[in-house]
Specification:
This protein has 164 residues and is mainly beta. It contains no helices and 19 strands.
Length: 164
């Protein structure tokens, strides 16, 4: 599988696009979204851009096109997305994994982590998406577990489910 073939697994669904931008929309009336992360298949590499914040909105790590521009000293970063267990952000004190982006054995991109946005805790894995510990994997109230999406590179999480 070549780099151009990487597909994103998010909440047990698969997305097939060259770029994946995942955001959170707290207020559906304004339409304003907060960026969670972007993954790009670019020139043979998988490129990550994200900011990880703690529950008090303090910046833990800022990754811009795979380059760390700021990391809180209470956290360690290990690895690279395309090698072994991927890129992992770990809380030193407890050893808890806060964020991980990796390539699975079958060549998919899997992202897991806890994001704090707009006073909400957003927990994402390759099997589930939760907002404040409530599953959020529906579109217009329809459960979408194990669904394949093509042409949906802007993925928006809302309190009511997913939006494209």
């Amino acid at each position: 599988m070549t780099h151009d073939d990487y597909m994103l697994i998010l909440g047990s669904n698969v997305y097939a696009d060259p770029t994946y931008t995942v955001s959170y929309q707290a207020d559906k009336n304004t339409g304003d979204r907060t960026h969670l992360f972007t993954l790009e298949n670019c020139d043979g590499d998988l490129i990550l851009t994200t900011e990880i914040r703690d529950k008090d909105s303090e910046l833990i790590a800022k990754i811009d096109k795979n380059k760390f521009t700021q990391i809180n000293e209470k956290f360690d970063v290990e690895g690279e997305i395309e090698k072994r267990n991927g890129l992992t952000l770990i809380k030193k004190e407890t050893g808890d994994v806060i964020f991980n982006a990796r390539i699975t054995e079958d060549g998919y991109v899997a992202v897991s982590g806890t994001f704090y946005v707009e006073g909400k805790k957003i927990y994402i894995t390759d099997r589930k998406v939760e907002i404040n510990d409530t599953p959020s994997q529906t579109i217009n109230g329809v459960d979408i577990h194990d669904t394949f999406f093509i042409g949906n590179n802007d993925i928006t999480l809302t309190d009511d489910g997913l939006k494209f």
